Amino acid sequence: MGRGTERRNTVTTTVLDEVVAARAPWSTVVAAGDVLTIIDLKGNQAVDTLLYSAADTAVRYSAQATVAAQSNLFLRTGTVLRAEDGSALMTIVEDEVGNHDTIGGACSQESNTLRYGHHTKHQHACVENFLLEGAKWGLGKRDLVSNINFYMNVPVDADGTLGIVDGLSAPGKKIKLRAEVDTLVLVSNCPQINNPCNGFDPTPVRMTVESA
Questions:
Q1: Which stretches make up the DUF1989 domain (predicted)?
Q2: 208 vs 97: CA distance, rounded Å
């Protein structure tokens, strides 16, 4: 090594390593400083996500604050995921896809019926997943806000029209998020089969948490 340089080796410990089944909900608290990695095992799987301060779940992810702070609709490396008051919850520290949606929202039984027909009313959806998993943490319907859709491709046309099209991910692609505070992460591994967000075939994803 040259004079004045220093080599630092960072040793990390895996504190969680779980596979979330296709269509299933999932949650955990990521301690401040720890890194959550979401791995798209099969490719083209949308991962709907909500974030809350573990210390006070009234402090929660805000799409509006996040978009306004970075002056960009899409999430990528360097994006700080913020609460309504502008405080940081998590930061995207590594991203192999480079484009994630924060305005498309979560599918629900009601929206499925409206968009795809009454024959879809029985289909389980992301809102239902959020309610089931959120109940474990004392959260209810009033606690649900506009969510992040990791790996979901939602282009915006010049006239403001949104689309849901084939994803940009591929098998094994990953995104890493560092917790800036102890953060409750609530996930619906999207069950949607009526549009291309999952390639019409929901698949598992892998979640790991590493502590430096």
A1: 18-184
A2: 18
Sign of the torsion formed by the C-alpha atoms of 168, 52, 205 and 172 = positive
Q: Measured at the alpha carbon of residue 160, what is the angle toward residues 85 and 98, in degrees to the nearest 5?
A: 65
The CA-based diameter of the chain, rounded to the nearest angstrom, is: 71
Question: Taking residues 164-177, what's their average pLDDT?
Answer: 91
Cα–Cα distance for residue pair 131/114, rounded to 1 Å:
20
60: DSSP letter: B
Region for residue 172 given its phi and psi (left: phi exceeds 0; alpha: psi -120 to 50; beta: otherwise): left
Question: What confidence tens digit (pLDDT) does each residue in 24-67 have?
Answer: 999 999 999 999 999 999 999 999 999 999 999 999 999 999 99
DSSP, collapsed to helix, strand or coil, labels residue 29 as strand
Q: What is the mean pLDDT of the chain?
A: 89
The DSSP string of 126-184 is: HHHHHHHHHGGGT--GGG--PPEEET-B--B-TTS-B--B--S--TTEEEEEEESS-EE
